[in-house]
Amino acid sequence: MNIFNKIASDLSVSTNQVNAVIRLLDEGGTIPFIARYRKEVTGSLDEVALTGIRDRLEQLRELEARREAILKSIEKQEKLTPELKAEIEAAETMTRLEDIYLPYKPKRKTRATTAREMGLEPLAEVIFKQKDMNAVNSAAEYIDEEKGVTSEEEALQGARDIIAEWVNEDAAARDRIRKLFSSKAIISSRVMSGKEKEGQKYRDYFDWSEPLKNVPSHRLLAMRRGEKEMILALSIAPDEQDAVRLLEEMFVSGSGASAEQVEIAVKDAYKRLMQPSLETEMRIDSKSRADEEAIAVFADNIRKLLLAAPLGQKRVLALDPGFRTGCKLVVLDAQGKLLHHSAIFPNPPQNQTLKAGAEVSQLVKEYNVEAVAIGNGTASRETEAFVRSCGLPSDVLVVMVNESGASIYSASEVARQEFPDQDVTVRGAVSIGRRLMDPLAELVKIDPKSIGVGQYQHDVDQNQLKKGLDDVVVSCVNSVGVELNTASRELLSYVAGLGPQLAQNIVTYRNEKGAFTNREALKNVPRLGDKSFEQAAGFLRIKSDNPLDNTGVHPESYPVVEKMAKDQQCTVQDLISNKELRAKINLRDYTTETIGLPTLEDIMKELAQPGRDPREKFEAFRFEDSVHEITDLKVGMKLPGVVTNVTNFGAFVDIGVHQDGLVHISHLADKFVKSPAEIVSVQQKVEVTVTEVDVDRKRIALSMKKDPFAKDQKPQQKSKLRRKSSPEGDMQEKLKRLQGKFGK
Predict the structure, then answer these.
(1) Beta bridge partners of 373
(2) Rounded to whole angstroms, how far apart are CA atoms 608 and 603?
(3) Strand, coil or helix: 394
(4) Domain parsing of the chain, residue ranges
(5) Cα–Cα dist 140/156, whole Å
(6) Nearest CA to 202 among 730, 734, 666?
(7) In the predicted model, is pLDDT for residue 585 greater than 50?
(8) pLDDT tens for residues 19-47?
(9) Radius of gyration (Cα) for the chain, nearest Å?
(10) CATH topology for 311-437?
(11) Which of 142, 126, 128, 169 is nearest to 259 (CA)?
C-alpha cells in the first residue's frame, strides 16, 4: 500500500502535500509550527488538515506493522502462498486484515481442535462438500473409543464443530454478516433483576431499543455506563433469522442429509462463534465512534473556554464565596502575584456585613483594585450582592467567574509549588482571580477533564481524550503566544517544541540568570537545541531592543524584514509604526526559494498588529439581580445567561442560581438545528426563557426560541425509537404539556 496516495485520497489533499507534511513531522516538526511557518511547503494546510494527516499516518503505520507481523506468522507456519500474500498485502483495513488472518491465528483449544484430534476432519470435509449422498452414513467409520468417539452422533457433532469453525473463519462470510450488523443491528437495554431502585438514574433505559447506526454518542455512552455499573444489560445484534439465512445462502446447497448437517453447523457457527465475536466488534466500533464524537464536543468546548476573553493585566481582588466558612479573599497585582489574603464573613450565619464591607473597600483603595472576581460556586450570588452594596468606585468591575477546576488546582502539585506556605482556600481564590485576568494561562495548569465542560469524559477512551485535548491546548497556547519572561512552566510546556522538561529548564534559567533580553538568548537554556528553538521561537514573545521579538515573525524571517526596512530607508520599528511605509512594499520583490507570499503576507499582518492577541475583547456580564436561587424562577421569565457546556443534545446555561439549565437542541432556535455547536459555544452570553422548573430534581428547562410556548412549533425531528421519550427528554415531554397550556 502506498501510504502517501492513500492519505491523499482519504483526506482530499495532494500527494505532494502529504509527502511534505510527513517529511516535516518525521523531522520533528510540530503541528503549530508547520501550520504557521511552513505554508509554502504544505500548500498552506491548516492545523485541522495537518492533524488529520498525522492521525491517518499513525493508523496506516500501525496497519503496516500488523501486516508485517501477520505475514511473518503465516510464513513461519509454512502456509503463506503467493495468493494469500497478495490478499494480505491488498487489505486496506485492520478488520479485513484480521479476517484473513483468523484461520491461521494461533488459538486456544476449541471444540473444533478437539474434533480434529479425534480424526474427524475428513468426515467434516466430505459433509461440507454436500455431494456424497452417503457421507453422513459413513460417520460410523469414525467411531474410535481410544480417540473418544463412541457413537455416530459424536462423530457428526465433531464434524459439525469443524464446519462451524470454517464458517466462522470465512472472511467473505464475516464481511457479509458484519455489513448486516452495521445496517440492521439493534442495541437493546434492560434493567438487571433487582436493580430497579438502585438504578433510577438509568430508568429511561430499563426497556429500550433502537437501531445501533442511529444511536447518538451520549445515549450509547450512558447505556454503557449503566452496564458497567451492573444496572443494565446490553445486547447488540441484528435479527438472528436474517443472519442465519445469509450464511445458509453461502454454505448450504441441496437438501440431502449432508446439507442438513451443514445447516445445523451454520446455525451453531452464527450463534456460538460469529454473533458474539461481531457483537464485541460492534461494541468496540460503536464505542470508538461515540468516543470520537464526545471528544470532539469536549475539545470544542475546551477551545472556547481557553480562548475566552481575558481581562488583561489588571489589579484584582478575588473572592472564593462561602457561608459557614466565610469568603476567602485575595488581592493580586497586574501580573497575578499574591499581595494579600484574608477571610471575610458577610453571609449567614455570621452576617458580618459591615465589617466585611469596610475591609473590601479599604483593600480596593489601598491596592488600587480595578476588578473584583467572584467564584460562581456556593454563596456566589449572595457575595456578589454584598460586593455591589459596598459602594465601590463605578470603574471597578465586579465579575462572576466560572470556578470549575479551581479546587483541583488548589490541591495540585503545581499549586503547592507556587504557594507552598498557603492553604488550599488561598490557592483557590488566587486561581479565580487569575482566571479572570487570563483564562488560558490559568486553565493550562488544570487537567482539561476537570474543567467541567465535557460530555461523558470519564467514559471515553482516556488515551484518545488526552491526545485530543492536548492538541487543543497546544493549538490555543500557540495561537495566542506566550510571554517568555512571565509565563509559568505549565504554559511554556505547551509551546511548540518545548514540553515539560525544557519548560522547567527555561524557568530555572530565568530564575538564576534573570529575564531574557531577546529571543536569541533562549539558545543559552540547557538542552534547548536548534530544533527546539526553531519550533518554539516564533510563539514566544519578549520585549527587547528588537521589536520583532514581540511579534509572531519567526527569527528565520528577520533578515527579510530588515531588508524591507533598508529598502525603505527606515528602521524595523518605523515599518511597524508607519502604515504608509508598509504600503510601499511590493511583497513579490522579497520572495525566495524558501519564503513565498503566504509567509510574507503573515509578516505584514504581524507588522501591522505586533503581538496581537487573537482573543475577543473582555465584556462584563451580570446576572438578573432578582434571581438568586432555583426557587426564584418562574415559567416564562426571560433571563441573561452564560453557556457553560455544549453537548450533542443541547446546551447548559448558567443563569445565576447555582444550577445550570438545559436548552434542549429543539429549543436552541426557531429553525431546525443539526448540531448545538451551530448556534452556541461555551462562554457565549445568551438570553433564555424559563420553560420548566423542577425544584425537587434540580432541573431547569430553558429555551432560546422567540416564543417557546407557541402552539404551532414544529418538532425538532421525529424519533424512531421504541420508547416515546429520551433520557434527556423527560423535561421536554413536560414542556410540551406546558406549551399546550400556554397556547390556550
Answers:
(1) 318, 399
(2) 9
(3) coil
(4) 3-104, 114-298, 311-437, 630-743
(5) 9
(6) 730
(7) yes
(8) 999 999 999 999 999 999 999 999 999 99
(9) 33
(10) Nucleotidyltransferase; domain 5 (3.30.420)
(11) 128
Q: In CATH, what number does 3-104 get?
A: 1.10.10.650
19 burial type by CB count under 10 A (0-12 exposed, 13-18 middle, 19+ buried): middle
Beta pairing class for 397-401 and 327-332: unpaired
Long-range contacts, stretch 283-292, CB < 8 angstroms, 24+ apart: 283/236, 286/187, 286/212, 286/215, 286/220, 286/236, 287/220, 287/221, 287/224, 287/461, 288/461, 289/217, 290/217, 290/218, 290/220, 290/221, 290/460, 291/217, 291/221, 291/460, 291/461, 291/464, 291/465, 292/464
Whole-angstrom Cα distance, residue 149 to residue 127?
17
Q: How many CA atoms lie within 13 A of 495 on its CB side?
A: 30
**H-run or E-run covering 72:** helix 47-76
What are the grid coordinates assigned to 27, written together?
523531522
Predicted confidence at residue 564, as pLDDT, reads: 96
Among residues 372, 411, 409, the alpha carbon closest in space to that of 393 is found at 372
Q: Give the phi and the psi of residue 541 in degrees, each rounded to 5.
A: -110, 140
Task: Supply the pLDDT for residue 729.
Answer: 46
Identify the CA nearest to 17 among candidates 26, 8, 25, 27. Answer: 8
Give residue-wise pLDDT tens across range 159-214.
999 999 999 999 999 999 999 999 999 999 999 999 999 999 999 999 999 999 99
Q: How confident is the model at residue 1 (pLDDT cuts 50, 70, 90)?
A: low
- Distance, in Å, from the CA atom of 322 to the CA atom of 444, rounded to the nearest integer, reads 26
Q: What is the mean pLDDT of the chain?
A: 91
Which CATH number is 630-743 given?
2.40.50.140
- Please check whether residue 135 is in contact with residue 85, taking contact to mean a CB–CB distance below 8 angstroms: no
Instruction: For residue 329, list its beta bridge partners.
Output: 319, 342
Point out the least confidently predicted range of 44-48, 476-480, 530-534, 621-625: 621-625
Enter the C-alpha cell of residue 192: 438487571
Residue 338 CB contacts under 8 Å (≥ 6 apart), including other chains: 330, 331, 332, 419, 422, 426, 430
439-471 pLDDT, tens digit per residue, is 999 999 988 777 766 667 778 888 898 899 899
CATH code for the structural domain at 114-298:
1.10.3500.10
Domains 3-104 and 311-437 share a fold: no
Which DSSP state fits 549?
Answer: G
Whether 426 contacts 326, CB under 8 Å? no
Q: Tell me if 270 sits within 8 A of 278, measured CB to CB.
A: no
What pTM value is reported for the model? Answer: 0.84
CA-based torsion, 288, 286, 215, 462: positive or negative: negative
Mean pLDDT over residues 541-552, rounded? 95
Instruction: State yes or no: pLDDT of 736 exceeds 70.
Output: no
CA dihedral 615→616→619→624, nearest 10 degrees, is -90
